Amino acid sequence: PSRSGNQVSEYISSTFLDKQQEVEIPPAKDKDKEKERRKRPMSQISGVRKLPHGSSLAAAAIPRFGVRTDQEGLLAKELEDTNKWGLNVFKVAEYSGNRPLTVIMYSIFQERDLMKTFRIPVDTFITYMLTLEDHYHADVAYHNSIHAADVAQSTHVLLSTPALEAVFTDLEIMAAIFASAIHDVDHPGVSNQFLINTNSELALMYNDASVLENHHLAVGFKLLQEENCDIFQ
Questions:
Q1: 169 in Cβ contact with 138 (< 8 Å)
Q2: Of 8, 88, 111, 156, which alpha carbon lies 20 to 30 A from 162's?
Q3: Which helix (H) or strand (E) holds 14?
Q4: Taking 70 as the threshold, does the pLDDT of residue 146 lie above it?
Q5: Which residue from 86, 129, 76 is spatially nearest to 106, judged by alpha carbons?
Q6: Are 84 and 158 in contact (CB under 8 A)?
Q7: Taking a C-beta distance cutoff of 8 angstroms, is the pair 120, 231 a contact?
Q8: By the 8 A CB rule, do 78 and 95 touch?
Q9: Domains of the chain
Q10: Residue ranges under compositional bias (Basic and acidic residues) (predicted)?
Q11: Contact status, residue 128 vs residue 224, Cβ threshold 8 Å
Q12: Contact criterion met (CB below 8 Å) for 139 and 175
């Protein structure tokens, strides 16, 4: 038999195992408190904010393009390109009061008749889109609501190509466009690697795996639980 193996076993036993009796076990109540304290930051999805859109909209009061604007004519002109490559999303943002995502998603869902197909109340759809758009950061140079609107519109055009005409169901089309709208929500403007290297709360929450991608999805779905936001109810 190996002498070194026995020595290692004896060392572990004498150093650690025999001293277990000396360890003071905290009362169950204190342990429960500590567990609750540790769980608290992870029980909530960071970035989700309470916003006032929920009860402020009525279906009869929805503006033509989903948002109020004093440049409706110019906005209408830009949205004529909703079904084409090259829509000027920056002009849409300018003429919609910086609501490009809400306006373009509303236009796409109307164009495809998705609200009627899936019985989505118009006020609920607009409330969700306004809430979603508010969770994109305007001060982030690239991953903002203009980018989300651009991706959603590009996805809509791509899915309209003749080669894909009979490939996807209405549900799959809606899922793809919805995914495009939420795909970068609450993006902080830094990379996954930065979040991991700085031991950020998000990196800890998602165990360093696809940190931002998991967060965008979580926020997008969490917002469906806000007042009058569940478009899939």
A1: no
A2: 88
A3: helix 3-15
A4: yes
A5: 129
A6: no
A7: yes
A8: yes
A9: 64-225 (1.10.1300.10)
A10: 19-35
A11: yes
A12: no
Residues 6+ apart with CB under 8 A from 107: 65, 66, 79, 82
pLDDT mean over 177-203: 98
CA–CA gap between residue 22 and residue 15 (Å, rounded): 12
Q: What is the mean pLDDT of residues 113-136?
A: 97
Q: Quick one: pLDDT band at residue 29, thresholds 50, 70, 90?
A: low
Interatomic CA distance for residues 133 and 78, integer angstroms: 20
Catalytic position from the list 135, 143, 187, 215? 143
User: What residue numbers does the annotated binding site for Zn(2+) cover?
Assistant: 147, 183-184
Distance CA 176, CA 101 (A): 15
pTM: 0.77
Active-site annotation holds for 143: yes
